[in-house]
C-alpha cells in the first residue's frame, strides 16, 4: 500500500455530493454548535478596532457630506471681470485693476494650456491608451496563466483521486467487512455468555 502524503477532507471526484437532507442535517449541526453571540460579536483573539480620530478639516468635510450640502471647492468669482461700484474711489479702482491683471494672467495661461493640449494632447492620449492596452494584455496573460495553472492542479487532483478510487473502494469494502465480522463475533460472544449463564 503506498504511503499517503496528502490528506483531503473530501474527495470531490470520488465522493457523491451530499443530498439536500444531508446538507440540512449538516447545517443544523453547525447552527446547534454556534452560540447565541457567535455571529454577532467578533472573535476574542481579534484586535479591537482603533478609534477614529479625524482632523478638523476631514471631520468638517464628513459633516458636509452627511448633511448633503453641495461642494463649493473652487471660488470662481475671482475670475470674473471686475467692475468697481464707485469710480471716484482710487483704492477700489486699484483693487479692480489687480483683479483684472489676475484674470488676464489666468486667461493667458489657460490659452497656452489649451494650445499645448491641441498640439500634444492627441499624441499623449494615444500613448496613454496604448500603455493601458499593454497593461490590460499583461493582466489578461496573467489571468490566462493562473487559469491554466488552476486547471492543471484540478486535473492532477482529479487524476490522483481517480487513480486511487479502486484502492479506496477496496479499503472501504474491507473496512465494512471487518466491521461486519466484529459485529458477528460480538453476537457470537454474547450468545456464548447467555449459554454459560444458562448452564450455571
Q: How are the SSEs placed, and which strands pair?
A:
Blueprint: H1 20-33, H2 56-66, H3 90-163, H4 165-199
Give an account of the 3D structure.
The chain is mainly alpha-helical and 200 residues long. The relative contact order is 0.05. It starts with 19 loop residues before the first helix and ends with a helix. The protein is built from 4 helices and no strands. The protein has helices at 20-33, 56-66, 90-163, 165-199.
What is the mean predicted local confidence, pLDDT? 85
Helix content: 55-70%
Order of helices and strands: HHHH
Principal-axis shape equals: elongated
Q: Please, how many helices? A: 4
Report the C-alpha radius of gyration, rounded: 40 Å
Distance between the termini: 49 Å
Largest sheet: none
The overall strand count is 0
Oligomer: single chain
Structural class: mainly alpha
Amino acid at each position: 500500500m503506498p504511503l499517503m502524503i496528502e490528506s483531503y477532507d473530501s474527495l470531490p471526484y470520488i465522493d457523491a455530493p451530499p443530498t439536500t437532507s444531508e446538507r440540512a442535517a449538516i447545517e443544523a449541526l453547525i447552527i446547534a454548535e454556534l452560540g447565541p453571540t457567535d455571529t454577532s460579536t467578533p472573535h476574542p483573539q481579534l484586535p479591537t478596532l482603533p478609534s477614529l480620530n479625524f482632523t478638523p478639516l476631514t471631520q468638517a468635510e464628513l459633516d458636509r457630506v452627511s448633511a448633503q450640502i453641495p461642494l463649493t471647492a473652487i471660488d470662481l468669482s475671482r475670475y470674473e471681470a471686475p467692475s468697481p461700484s464707485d469710480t471716484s474711489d482710487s483704492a477700489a479702482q486699484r483693487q479692480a485693476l489687480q483683479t483684472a491683471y489676475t484674470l488676464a494672467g489666468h486667461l493667458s495661461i489657460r490659452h497656452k494650456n489649451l494650445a499645448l493640449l491641441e498640439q500634444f494632447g492627441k499624441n499623449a492620449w494615444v500613448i496613454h491608451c496604448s500603455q493601458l492596452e499593454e497593461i490590460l494584455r499583461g493582466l489578461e496573460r496573467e489571468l490566462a496563466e493562473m487559469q491554466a495553472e488552476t486547471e492543471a492542479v484540478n486535473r492532477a487532483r482529479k487524476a490522483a483521486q481517480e487513480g486511487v478510487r479502486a484502492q479506496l473502494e477496496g479499503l472501504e469494502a474491507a473496512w465494512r467487512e471487518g466491521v461486519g465480522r466484529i459485529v458477528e463475533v460480538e453476537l457470537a460472544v454474547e450468545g456464548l455468555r447467555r449459554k454459560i449463564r444458562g448452564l450455571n
